[in-house]
Amino acid sequence: MSVVTILNLGGQEVLGKVGLKHAINLIYKQKARIxxxxxxxxxxxxxxxxxxxxxxxxxxxxxxxxxxxxxFSKRGVLKRDNYICCYCGxxxxxxxxxxxxxxxxxxxxxxxxxxxxxxxxxxxxRSPKEAGMxxxxxxxxxxxxxxxxxxx
Length: 152
Fold this sequence. Notes:
Elements: E1 3-7, E2 14-19, H1 20-28, E3 32-43, E4 46-54, H2 61-64, H3 74-80, E5 94-97, E6 112-115, H4 117-123, H5 128-131, H6 144-150
Parallel strand pairs: 1-4
Antiparallel strand pairs: 1-2, 3-4, 5-6
């Protein structure tokens, strides 16, 4: 699948990248137009875009508000940890609260790790120490540059 760059109105600012179907959908809904096309390639009635330009300016607050913390997301945790379980090193598809939620601990970058289903179930609502499990790495808050890379 092709990756298409999304540009803000004016074509100067890169907002991110999306798949070809998403880009064509934005063009179809008249929210964007083709900024640069792949010569000679078509997707239905549309030229295949290399980049699209939004028809309305979008203020990308997440891109400029670098004084606070990177917004938390479970998907971001999985990508930050490369889908590697913090407890056994196998492939992870779930996110675990390091310190249990029921004890009032919030889900945040520093209290969340990628975990496989087996380890997440084994640990349950306990801390790693209480469950007798060792962590292979410590959770951390990613930089804005690293979090921006999660989107691609």
